[in-house]
Amino acid sequence: MSKIEISRIADVVLEPNKKLGYYLVNDQIFYNKFQAMIESRKTGSSIRWFFNEETFVPFAWSQEPQADINELYRQRAQQLRDTYDYIRIEASGGSDSNTAIFSFLLNGIHLDEIVYRYPKLGGETWQTNIVDQTAANQLSEYEFAARPLLKWIADNYPATKITMLDYSENVSDPDFDKDETWIFATKHWLSPSYCMGKFDNYHKSFRHIADRGTRICIIYGADKPKIFIKDNKYFLYFLDHFTGHCTPEVGEYTNVTNEPFFWTPDLPELIAKQAHMVKTWFEQPSNQKFIETIRWPHHVNIKTRTLYEQIVRNLIYPYYDINTFQTNKPFTNIVNEHDQWFFDNFKHSRVHQVWQAGIDYLTQNVDDQYLVRHGSYGHVTEVKVFDSPFYYFGDCSVPDHGNMLGTRKLVESRILANANTHRHVINGKLVIY
Prior knowledge:
This protein is an alpha/beta fold. It has 13 helices and 18 strands. The chain has one domain. The protein starts with a strand and ends with a strand. Residues about 405-410 have low confidence and may be disordered.
């Protein structure tokens, strides 16, 4: 049976790009997660997320690529340069986007533009702190990470355009003209900054390029490999909220494409190499005490997730200066720690009203199984994520000695897949258990 593709809702036109993942409800393909959830509730049907399975299922994940990781980064940059006329990278100052940037510049591959988005109003009231690495201190990344990087690029690669976009410019506007349908212009993240238009691509500086019909690529630093050990086997998997950073709204443009730099079906060898590098590190006797951070069931709390992120970025990103200031990732996708400046100063603004209207609309029209509630009042703080099949890529030789780090194990509540059955791909064959 042929599938019906849904790429428009309200006034939002989405990029129909299957490489970014899509959601299947009955015979309908949705490129917006929330639209799929609403349809699921209307029809009583289940949702399944697909992410490049036609490429990833038959791929030989257990074979480590021989190429050096920096060579694979160069190949990915060149692959993108050969495909598009104009390349723009969304920079955060963190290890993922930095590595994507360096993969172009340090290999002599031209990068057209780097965009850094910053809430100017938030920065005016925020006291930077180089010691505090909590997610709420994210605004300090501009001063201590992004600003030095952008200056270095401007000094050494003047042909690369640097654009600073202030996504807080609408915060004080009493005539802010969005309504609750703003939620359909994002794919997963629902914090106030996305309501403000944090990743609005259609700034006037961008439109004149798109209007020429130029093939444009917007690159996001998504993402580090997600791995775990189950039944003494290493598995690699993908989660939809990491590709959710890619802005789905493209308006009427058909020449604008979003590209995750790392999670791509066009060069799965890059992902495989990263996964094997992480596996090799955990297998070393001196590092085995940390292996409980990746044993199944996933124990996700701030401590273990931060530890895993620190270990992995130091392994797979040779270009990245490990002394660069970086805060922890936010832990929820609605009441997001990164927007603490907004909650502190603008909770009575029109933007806050519109943001809350979008959240209310979603929670009233989506089945509760897709929502995560916290606190005694049961406030919705998060929308659950979808997982891919688990791709086997090697055996674990380290005995399970229990929880050596003393961290409390928590089953990953954000993963939507049934807690008892998961799709495993072992040497190209699908096994469900």
